Predict the structure.
Amino acid sequence: MNDIEGLEGEEFVMTVELGKVREMARATGLSDYVDVVAAGDSSPPTFLTTQRNWQTGSADTWRLAGLHERLMLHAEQEYVFHGPPPPVGARLRCRSQITKEWHKDANSGKRLHFVEMTTWFRGADGSLIAEARMTGVEVLSDGGGGPR
């Protein structure tokens, strides 16, 4: 193990921008949504995945953990909402943490490195709006060394 569990990036601010919501709706085939969404409407639940657009520098938890994001596969995604999805126009205070790490041997003889990152999204008043758990997996070289 790389002993990265618990590593946390700095807080970052994510704005639920109307244009970004429309871009994501188009990209994910929600064409009917594109034409009707307006400021104040709920964002699509999966919009929170775009957090990577705002997560830079010392807030980029994947990079702080030394993970090779270009070599990782997106293995799983889960959202927990503590009310409706954030509305278009909301400014969210966010923080991400590596919450779990493990390895598994693949049938091919390669070693797989799994990492779960949890991000907490809070409203302006500090209330918890949502949590997102993303699991990424890297294929390691034979013998469990670095990425292939």
Summary: Residues 48 and 132 are 8 Å apart (CA to CA). Strands lie at 12-15, 73-81, 91-105, 111-122, 128-140.
